């Protein structure tokens, strides 16, 4: 119950954060760029934190679905976008590192069980 509510709130925050990010990067801020930038920081950060908190309420048998490396990569990407919106140096390198971690997470999941058990069923 709590996990579903956290997921719903997290998704809403992600959508609002992405809307603010799109407005910032297309420079369609309608004269309120500072408010849109703050919205991007608040909604994006809240979405990330809620997605991590939702991990706490996942039963142990469903941990395979959550990948901590993906979350860490998403956090690094968010930090890279924040650095880029502040026009600081090295934003590109932070973004590349975040995308690399996120891409690597599709191949490695520390909570995934061995697939050998499932392969045996298919071999019969």
From TrEMBL:
<feature type="transmembrane region" description="Helical">
    <location>
        <begin position="12"/>
        <end position="32"/>
    </location>
</feature>
<keyword id="KW-0812">Transmembrane</keyword>
<protein>
    <submittedName>
        <fullName>Uncharacterized protein</fullName>
    </submittedName>
</protein>
<keyword id="KW-1133">Transmembrane helix</keyword>
<keyword id="KW-0472">Membrane</keyword>
<feature type="transmembrane region" description="Helical">
    <location>
        <begin position="38"/>
        <end position="59"/>
    </location>
</feature>
<feature type="transmembrane region" description="Helical">
    <location>
        <begin position="66"/>
        <end position="84"/>
    </location>
</feature>
<feature type="transmembrane region" description="Helical">
    <location>
        <begin position="90"/>
        <end position="108"/>
    </location>
</feature>
């Amino acid at each position: 119950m709590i996990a579903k509510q956290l997921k719903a709130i997290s998704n809403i925050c992600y959508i609002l954060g992405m809307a603010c990010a799109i407005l910032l990067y297309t420079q369609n801020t309608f004269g309120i760029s500072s408010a849109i930038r703050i919205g991007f920081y608040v909604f994006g950060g809240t979405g990330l934190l809620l997605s991590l908190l939702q991990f706490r309420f996942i039963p142990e048998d469903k941990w395979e679905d959550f990948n901590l490396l993906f979350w860490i990569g998403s956090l690094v990407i968010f930090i890279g976008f924040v650095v880029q919106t502040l026009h600081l140096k090295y934003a590109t390198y932070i973004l590349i590192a975040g995308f690399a971690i996120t891409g690597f997470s599709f191949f490695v999941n520390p909570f995934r069980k061995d697939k050998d058990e499932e392969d045996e069923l298919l071999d019969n």
